[in-house]
Amino acid sequence: MSSSRKYCPFCGCFGTTIKWGLNKQKRTRYCCKECRKTFCSRTGTIRSKSHLTEKQWNSLPKLVSLRTHPSGADLGRYFGKSVRTGQRVMKNIREILPSSSPPQAIKSLAELDETTFKGQWIGGGKQRKGRVSLIPLKNRGTRAMNEFVEKLVAPKVPIFTDEWRGYNEIYLSRDHLTVCHAREFVSEHCKVVHTNGIEGVWGHAKPLAVHTYRGYPKIEDFLREICFQFNFTYTQRCQYLTAHFSRLLKSTNTLCR
């Protein structure tokens, strides 16, 4: 993380800052000669008001980027802080992760499935050897599933699903192949027809939904983190978090912490 600031997080002026002593946390304070506001290297970033040291923040990307990283409570214990400190840090980190909705529709073979997390229906789509997208669903009815398919998959792209009746109208607009999970997980007639990719996502996410993320009301935060783990390599996840820990958030806090 950068320990100095050459620009003001309040007015955006560059090259107008001067050192202005230390703040209560013994961090270097700066003053902008244009707007006359004071700040430190953490002001306006995700690290603002955090009790973690710079060394601890530097080690966070490697910890959080693990597929089985510690929960927020365990993170607080690991750093010798309170449980609430660790939970607050994890909550803030989840809010800066990329959206779980697809930036663009799947344009090649797609596997679709749905499941529940804590009573909420979730629809999942996975491109073969590609990205994962997860979105909340109102229900599993035919209309909801038609909207789900149209949102995640580009027109005329073939999809693979199980034999849930909510998908019964999909064949009218695209190629739709199914596998009967009551009998098999890979079609005996064609080995290409299966949904093992998206089923693997559920196998990873469901235990975390029950244990690691209990107590967080926003299902969107949980879905973002699951997609983040599957859509990026470990190195990419570390680089993403490291870059965003020093980046200014949308709203800058006026307190110099």
Task: Explain the overall architecture.
It contains 7 helices and 8 strands, in the order βββαααβββαββααα. Among the domains are: 1-44, no CATH class; 110-232, Nucleotidyltransferase, domain 5, CATH 3.30.420. Residues 252-257 have low confidence and may be disordered. By secondary structure, the protein is an alpha/beta fold. The two termini are 15 Å apart. Helix 2 (72-78) packs across helix 3 (83-95). It has a 5-stranded mixed beta sheet with strand order 6-5-4-7-8, sandwiched between helices. The chain has a 3-stranded antiparallel beta sheet with strand order 1-2-3, with no helix packed on it.
What attributes characterize this protein structure?
disordered C terminus; Nucleotidyltransferase, domain 5; 257 residues; alpha/beta; single chain; 8 strands
